[in-house]
Specification:
Blueprint lengths: L6 H7 L3 E4 L2 H8 L4 E5 L3 H8 L9 H6 L6 E3 L5 H15 L19
Parallel strand pairs: 1-2, 2-3
């Protein structure tokens, strides 16, 4: 694993990524890079926001798709062990994968065929 300052070229050449929640999840999906979405805020912010924010997913790509197409590790689930486990699920398939983030069950894709 290597951290780089310019994420877009790195994502384009990666077999998989660890992407913070936000527009970067859409960018990664558009680049056909399999990834795990991660997000953590302060415990107080999470406590106050949890009761006010009612969404089924946190990753923009999952919100757009209307279902979970990429794994989300949020708050307490965002641990090194969980990241390793999720990447372990993605990486064995990345070499065989056509490079696309899986299409939601409704047939919608974030990328052009």
């Amino acid at each position: 694993m290597r951290l780089v300052p310019d994420a877009l070229p790195a994502l384009a050449h990666s077999r998989a990524g660890i992407v913070a929640s936000g527009t970067a999840t859409v960018e990664a999906a558009l680049m056909d890079t399999p990834f795990v979405m991660v997000y953590r805020v302060s415990p107080l912010t999470y406590f106050l926001g949890k009761s006010r924010v009612k969404v089924p997913h946190f990753a923009m790509v999952n919100l757009i798709a209307g279902e979970r197409i990429v794994p989300e590790l949020v708050q307490h689930d965002f641990t090194a062990a969980n990241i390793t486990a999720q990447l372990g699920e993605i990486l064995p398939h990345a070499a065989q994968h056509d490079g696309h983030v899986p299409a939601p069950s409704g047939g919608f894709r974030l990328t052009a065929p």
